[in-house]
What does this fold into?
Amino acid sequence: NFRYAFLNERLTYIRKSKLSMSAGWYVPGDQQLHSTYLVCRKAQLLNRDENDQRALIKRVRYEFRQSVLSENYSEASEFFSMLEELNGVHIIDLLLSFANRNRIQLSMLRKLYHGVRFS
It folds into this structure.
């Protein structure tokens, strides 16, 4: 048995800073995206079963979409190629790949979404 305590007050607040490490994520030229791609490649080599494969596809799809929406075109191409290798491409991924190949700027959609969701 586990004992839980419930406290009905807000004790943690979100602090947003322009200098924080996360403020640089998913912006054009994001250096961390390529590192994330390399980690996903390593995970692909370490996958043991179908559950591992599904989890990796989910992560690669997320990173692919974020790459397209943040206009990191080369990383988006790498993530899309990986999705193809993993047989994880959906129709929306094909549309985003088209936008990526044609350098269609979608960052405003991402900013709008985050403005609505997190404001």
